[in-house]
Amino acid sequence: MIFINGFDISNNKIPNTNAYPYNVFEHKDCGHLNFDSITILYGNNASGKSTLLNTIANKLKLPGAESIRGDLLYFNQFIDECDFTFGDNELGQSFQVLPSHSRYIKSEDIMYEVKKIQQDAILKQGHLYQKALDGMTLNEREQYGNSWDCEKRLDEIRFALEKYSNGEATLQVLEDSIYSDSLYLLDEPEMSLSPQNQVLLAEKINEWARYLSCQFIIATHSPFLLCTLDAKIYNLDTKDFQVCHWSSLENVKFFYNFFKQNESEFI
Asked: Which Pfam families match (predicted)?
């Protein structure tokens, strides 16, 4: 399902060239982005991929969207100058609102959840807070918190943490955050994951998009996600954010050339 099919990035120029986030896109001619069920914002460090993802999250008013420290005037002005268009449902009718479980999830959010699980004293508090984000009322949370179902779930989380490494626990936390028919913006979800688990994550995202009708917009430069995800890829290292095939991207070529130069080590 495609809930948001397009996003227009502000191309306005202002006198204060150091104002964030105008300065990030000052020398870009990016314009309009068309989204698929999975869309990747690729770029090296300082390319603006996380800034763009957060801009989209703020424009869509998604839970998890971050404001900035400092002068909010230019930040809010930039957000106002951006625009987006809804996608169509199965009946060809345009969506009017985003699904309630849609979220902006950053790598640090996932690691924070893992750390909360590791601290048993606040495990229950964090679990109930997640239930609040999912729409459970205060009264429902109080009843659930005293129930056998809650204690059983806490035991499952404790067991998962004991059984899995940080990377595997990260996969579990992310999987627990995904609901069907929802839009997710993911900022470098591969952080702390081994290459093998990065591929596993990408395969899961492909499945969530296909079988759960989720839409994903992902900021990453991981070659393992880039080559595994069934995605449209925008290259933010180009001036006009060209759509590129994964094998043509600089980061992927670097990996290829590095191992090619050391090919004799694998014989």
From this structure: AAA_15 (PF13175)
161 part of a folded domain = no
Segments forming the whole domain that contains residue 235: 4-108+181-266
Categorise residue 20: left if φ over 0, alpha if ψ from -120 to 50, beta otherwise. Answer: beta
Angle at 119 between CA 115 and CA 124, to 5 degrees: 105
Q: Is residue 229 part of a domain?
A: yes
Q: Classify residue 39: in a domain, yes or no.
A: yes
Does any domain span residue 175?
Answer: no
Q: How far apart are CA 126 and CA 21, in angstroms?
A: 32
The partner residues of 183 in beta bridges, in order of sequence, read 215
The answer for 48, left when phi > 0, alpha when psi is -120 to 50, beta otherwise, is left
Return per-residue pLDDT of the chain as tens, 267 residues.
Answer: 999 999 999 888 888 778 888 888 888 888 899 999 999 999 988 888 999 999 999 999 999 888 876 667 888 999 999 999 999 988 888 999 999 999 999 877 776 666 665 565 467 777 888 888 888 888 888 888 889 988 888 877 766 655 555 666 777 778 888 999 999 999 999 887 889 989 999 999 999 999 999 999 999 999 999 999 999 999 999 989 999 999 999 999 999 999 999 989 887
The CATH number of residue 100's host domain is 3.40.50.300
**Residues in the chain, total:** 267
The residue among 96, 78, 73, 77 whose CA lies nearest residue 86 is 96
CB 121 within 8 A of CB 39: no
Both structure tokens of 224 = 């393992």
- What is the pTM (predicted TM-score) of this model? 0.81
Whole-angstrom distance, CA of residue 33 vs CA of residue 89: 20
What's 165's DSSP letter?
Answer: -
